[in-house]
Structure formats: C-alpha cells, structure tokens
C-alpha cells in the first residue's frame, strides 16, 4: 500500500508531479486559453464582482490561503483577508451579503473551519470551497467549489494536498482575473504555461536533490531550533517549512517574513542556529540576499532553497537545495518540495514515526 516507499509521507511527496497534474487536468485548456471549473461557473459572476474575499482555514491549508491572498490581490485586484478558522469563528467578524468566504481544507471535516462557514453562510456570504475529500461536510456546505485532486492523503503531515490546493487556487485566481479583465491575455497565457510545467519541475527536484537533502538532514538533525525565512510569495512557504519540521521531527522551528528578523528573532542567531532561507530568484531576491548576509555576519548556519545556477545565493550558503526557475507566483508550488523532504529525512534520521507524529490527528474534528 505504500507502493514500495518506506512511509506514506515519502510516497505522497513523490506523488506530487501526478497530483498537481491531476488538479489541473481538464481544467486548464492551453489551446482555448481558458480555465474551466464547472463547480464555480454558476457563481463565477458573483465571485468576480465581490468586493472582498475572506479565506478561512487551519494549519497547512491556512498557509495555502496566505499564498492565495497574494496571488488573488495581484491578479484580480480584490481585497483578500486570511483568517484562522478558530479565531474567525469565535469573534464577531464583519460579514456582508455578497462577501465570498473561501474555505480551504484537505479533509473537509475540520470542525473550526466548518462552523466558521456555517456562521458566515447565515449572514449571506457565498461559500467557495477548495476541498480534497469528495462529499465531505465542507464540500457539502459550499455554494461553489473546486475539488483538489490529490487523492487520499494518509500521512498526518500534509504534503500533496498543499500543492494540489495551490494548483487549484492559481486556477481560480486566473479564472477570476480573466473574467474581471485584470490580467492581460499575454500574462494569462504565460502563467497558464508556467502552471502546466510545474509537474516536470517538481519531478526534477525528486530526481536530483534527494541525496543532497539527506546529507543536510544528517548534518542538522541534532539542532534544537530552526528558523525559516522567506519574502513575498515564499513567506508562507517558510511558515509551512517550519510547521512540517515541528510536526515530523519535534524540533522547534519558527517561520518569519525575512525582513521581520530585525524586529526580534535575530537575537536567537548564533553558530548553533540553522536558518533556512527560501531564496529563489524573484523580485525580492536582492533583498533576501542581504538578509542572508545579516545572518551570516552573526554566524548562523545558512541552508537555502535556491534557483538552479544562482551562484550568489549558493556561495553565501553553508548548504543549499536547488529548484528549477519559475515565475514567482508559481514558485511556492516548487519551493515547498525540498522543505517537505528536509523534514521527512530529519524525522527518519531521528527514528521518529513520520506518518503518525505524536499528539496529532489527521483531521481535527473537535474544537
Ligand atoms: O483537513 P484540513 O486541511 O482542514 O486540515 C487543516 C490542518 O489541521 C492541517 O493542515 C494540519 O495543520 C496538518 N497536520 C499540517 O501538516
């Protein structure tokens, strides 16, 4: 059942070229320059005319939501907020008829997310679901939605569900942007083609980086704390890298926007602290390179995720993992993969139960 892999988590990481492809198959039509999402057609007009989208989710799905916020604001020019379902549910949020609540959930059964949606629905919001489990409670409650096609995810740590969520969220953003006219035909085509190339880029990482990541895992497995830093679209990837490491290895890890470092966390840096930078080539690259230099000056150990052939970031790093070049909007789908693998191999090195970490449940159906 693990298909020859030692753990479900590894199998699911390796399935990503297929699950990302499955999540866009039949939906992204490059010839017709069109995105077909049958589950949202009925509400497409309302969604593209809304003044506000509130994304509600927990955990890894919440991280996908943070990335979607940046993408939707950039491409669709709609105001987006991202909320932890548990907070949104218990306070008295302002919801107006016509607001779109975008729920992201692998299981479709997370109690806090479900109740947050029930409350919003009563107040006239349109519920748009991005869910993996067909027929789940959140899927049934949604007015409109697009399933992720990740297949069953058994590992408690979410991996392939996250990249499937990002795939579908990109499709939704592109579709709304095209309807609203906030994206040029050329940019639409460029991003569609970039999305289409993601499976082969993820495959490249799986084919070429494993040995290197295993060595990095061996070298840093005894660290007590880790810091993960990123900027822009890669900031939530840093948060996700930290969450994965905590879940799988029980090593304390924190994710931050790289520029926030100076406002506190930099006090932690010494020669014992590994700092993981998601430093791919994008509009923020120069800025993140100076953040790397700041950590280096304080003797922190630099591990980075870099774009292939980026000699600058490589030379500044103690260790690095490479990914193929990608548009910055699409990059998180690719840059998260080395971080999933890093936490997996650290967990394995430490002899831990990576598929079922202590204290965690696959779906959190209690509040
Ligand atoms: O099923 P959901 O996507 O609603 O679950 C949300 C979180 O419980 C989930 O992502 C959790 O954080 C994972 N253990 C992360 O790996």
Can you walk me through this structure?
This protein has 367 residues and is of the alpha/beta class. It is built from 15 helices and twelve strands. The strands form three sheets. The chain has a five-stranded parallel sheet, sandwiched between helices. It has a five-stranded parallel sheet with strand order 9-8-10-11-12. The protein has a two-stranded antiparallel ribbon with strand order 1-2. Helix 7 (137-141) links the parallel strand 6 and strand 7. Helix 2 runs antiparallel to helix 10 (198-208), helix 4 packs parallel to helix 8 (160-180) and helix 4 (59-76) runs antiparallel to helix 12. The longest helix is centred in the middle third of the chain and has 21 residues, at 160-180. The radius of gyration is 20 Å and the shape is globular. Residues 58-61, 105-107, 110, 113, 156-158, 247, 360, 363-364 line the site of 5-amino-5-deoxy-1-O-phosphono-D-mannitol.
What's the main sheet like? 5 strands, parallel
Which distinct ligands sit in these coordinates?
5-amino-5-deoxy-1-O-phosphono-D-mannitol
Q: How many DSSP helices?
A: 15
- Please state the average pLDDT score: 96
In whole angstroms, the N-to-C terminal distance is 32 Å
The ordered H/E elements are HHEEHEHEHEHEHEHHHHEHEEHEHEH
Percent helix: 40-55%
The secondary-structure class comes to alpha/beta
SS strand fraction: 15-25%
């Amino acid at each position: 059942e693990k298909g020859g892999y030692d753990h479900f988590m590894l199998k699911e990481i390796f399935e990503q070229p297929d699950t990302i492809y499955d999540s866009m198959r039949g939906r992204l039509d490059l010839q017709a320059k069109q995105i077909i999402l049958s589950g949202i057609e009925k509400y497409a007009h309302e969604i593209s005319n809304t003044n506000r989208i509130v994304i509600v989710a927990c955990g890894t799905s919440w991280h996908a939501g943070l990335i979607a916020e940046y993408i939707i604001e950039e491409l669709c020019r709609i105001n987006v907020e991202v909320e932890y379902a548990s907070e949104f549910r218990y306070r008295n949020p302002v919801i107006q008829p016509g607001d779109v609540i975008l729920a992201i959930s692998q299981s479709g059964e997370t109690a806090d997310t479900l109740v947050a949606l029930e409350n919003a629905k009563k107040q006239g919001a349109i519920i748009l679901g991005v869910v993996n489990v067909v027929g789940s409670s959140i899927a049934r409650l949604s007015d409109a939605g697009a399933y992720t096609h990740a297949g069953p995810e058994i590992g408690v740590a979410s991996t392939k569900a996250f990249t499937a969520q990002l795939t579908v969220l990109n499709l939704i953003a592109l579709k709304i942007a095209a309807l609203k006219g906030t994206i040029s035909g050329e940019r639409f085509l460029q991003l569609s083609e970039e999305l289409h190339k993601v499976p082969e880029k993820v495959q490249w990482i799986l084919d070429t980086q494993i040995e290197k990541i295993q060595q990095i895992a061996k070298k840093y497995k005894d660290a007590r704390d880790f810091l993960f830093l990123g900027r822009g679209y890669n900031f939530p990837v840093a948060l996700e890298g930290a969450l994965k490491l905590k879940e799988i290895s029980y090593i304390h890890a924190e994710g931050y926007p790289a520029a926030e470092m100076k406002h506190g966390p930099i006090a932690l840096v010494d020669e014992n602290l590994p700092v993981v930078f998601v430093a791919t080539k994008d509009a923020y690259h120069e800025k993140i390179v100076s953040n790397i230099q700041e950590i280096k000056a304080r003797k922190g150990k630099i591990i980075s995720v870099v774009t292939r052939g980026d000699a600058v970031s490589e030379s500044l790093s103690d260790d690095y993992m490479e990914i193929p070049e990608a548009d910055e909007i699409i990059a998180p789908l690719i840059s998260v993969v080395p971080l999933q693998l890093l936490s997996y191999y650290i967990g394995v090195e430490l002899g831990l139960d990576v598929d079922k970490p202590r204290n965690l449940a696959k779906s959190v159906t209690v509040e």
